[in-house]
Amino acid sequence: MAIIPRVLRALGVAAILSGTVACSVAPPGGGIHDPYEPVNRQVHAFNTGLDRAVARPAAQVVRAADPASFQWIVNFSDNASLPGMVLNATLQGDGEAAAVNAVRFLINTTLGFGGFIDWAGPMGYQERSTDFGQTLAVWGVPEGAYVELPLLGPSTERDAAGEVVDVLLDPLEYLGTRPQRRWSLPARVGEVVVERGMFSDTVDSLLYDSADSYAQARLAYLQNRRFELGEPPPPVVQGDAESEAYVDDLLEDFYR
């Protein structure tokens, strides 16, 4: 029952972080709230440099070898994240999503050799992706300001708080197998590299071909995240229609 004190501690952290987020409320109209833009741009430059030096070359190797041959890494990583999704769906009051993710984890952990093979998907148990950032949104916590995090990239104050709680609250430590606990973090890093290879052209276009990659990444993240959460997208301001069309094309590349 050691998980119960851990849950209580994590929820206590969530309450503190949520209060911090609530102090930074976006202006009315669902616009882009970016009071930290100077610092965010410095972090964006760091992340872009890291991508150019490490992630992009690794992704090119993956792409040359065919990303589909690395699907087992993505499967393992996604499966290891399911206990956290079950917990978040439960906290959101979404029993159906919690049940589907729980069954998916059970099937793929047993029949799928720890999650390397996705047997649950063809059986109709598709992942119901969620996280603590979404849990906070369901609980009514505002989005807060836009932030770009080192290594992790675009986020908001609410989602950044969710990242912290997801790490503190991850039930995999108690429910996963020893290989899952040991290799979940390397697998998640590998998943990032594989997906970077899968969407190499789109990411390169965003980071290296756009006139202002920071503004484009910010708009792309907020559009996609607010769509996921059912929240109003950033409004189109005068002179920004071309930018939004560019971002819409990028998002279509990810989800087509």
TrEMBL record:
Instruction: Pull one GO CC term from this UniProt entry.
Output: membrane
One GO biological-process annotation of the entry reads: intermembrane phospholipid transfer
Q: Mind telling me which InterPro entries this protein's record contains?
A: MlaA (IPR007428)
Signal peptide start-end: 1-25
- What keywords tag this UniProt record? Lipoprotein, Signal
Q: What family does the entry list? A: Belongs to the MlaA family.
Supply the PANTHER family for this chain: INTERMEMBRANE PHOSPHOLIPID TRANSPORT SYSTEM LIPOPROTEIN MLAA (PTHR30035:SF3), LIPOPROTEIN VACJ-RELATED (PTHR30035)
Indicate what this protein is called per its UniProt record: VacJ family lipoprotein
Give the originating organism: Histidinibacterium lentulum
Specify the taxonomic lineage.
Bacteria, Pseudomonadati, Pseudomonadota, Alphaproteobacteria, Rhodobacterales
